[in-house]
Amino acid sequence: MPDNLIEITPSAYDYPLLIKHLLHSPLIRSPDQVIVYREHRHTYRQFRDRLGRLASALSDLGVKAGDVVAVLDWDSHRYHECYFAIPMMGAVLQTGNLALPPEQLLYTLNDTGASTLLLNVDFLPLIEPLASRLPHVSRFILLNDRPDLPTTTLPVAGEYEALIETSSPFFVFPDFDERTRATTFHTTGTTGQPKGVYFSHRQILLHVFSTLTELGVATVQGRVHRDDVYMPMTPMFHVHSWGVPYSATLVGLKQVYAGRYSPDVFLRLIRDEGVTFTTCVPTILQMLLNAPGSQNVDLSKLKMVVGGSALPRPLAKAAMKRGMDVYAGYGQSESCPTLTIMHLTTAQTTGDFDAEVELRIKPGYAPPLVELRVVDSDMQDVAHDGMATGEIVARAPWLTMGYLNDPKASERLWAGGYLHTGDMGSIDPDGTVHITDRLKDIIKSGGEWISSIDLEDIILQRDGVAKAAVIAVHDDKWGERPLALVNVLPEFQGSIGRDEIRAHVISFVEKGLISKFAVPQRVEFVDALPLTSVGKIDKKELRAEYRDQLPEGHMPAAAE
Amino acid sequence: MPDNLIEITPSAYDYPLLIKHLLHSPLIRSPDQVIVYREHRHTYRQFRDRLGRLASALSDLGVKAGDVVAVLDWDSHRYHECYFAIPMMGAVLQTGNLALPPEQLLYTLNDTGASTLLLNVDFLPLIEPLASRLPHVSRFILLNDRPDLPTTTLPVAGEYEALIETSSPFFVFPDFDERTRATTFHTTGTTGQPKGVYFSHRQILLHVFSTLTELGVATVQGRVHRDDVYMPMTPMFHVHSWGVPYSATLVGLKQVYAGRYSPDVFLRLIRDEGVTFTTCVPTILQMLLNAPGSQNVDLSKLKMVVGGSALPRPLAKAAMKRGMDVYAGYGQSESCPTLTIMHLTTAQTTGDFDAEVELRIKPGYAPPLVELRVVDSDMQDVAHDGMATGEIVARAPWLTMGYLNDPKASERLWAGGYLHTGDMGSIDPDGTVHITDRLKDIIKSGGEWISSIDLEDIILQRDGVAKAAVIAVHDDKWGERPLALVNVLPEFQGSIGRDEIRAHVISFVEKGLISKFAVPQRVEFVDALPLTSVGKIDKKELRAEYRDQLPEGHMPAAAE
Question: Quick one: pLDDT at residue B510?
Answer without folding.
Answer: 85
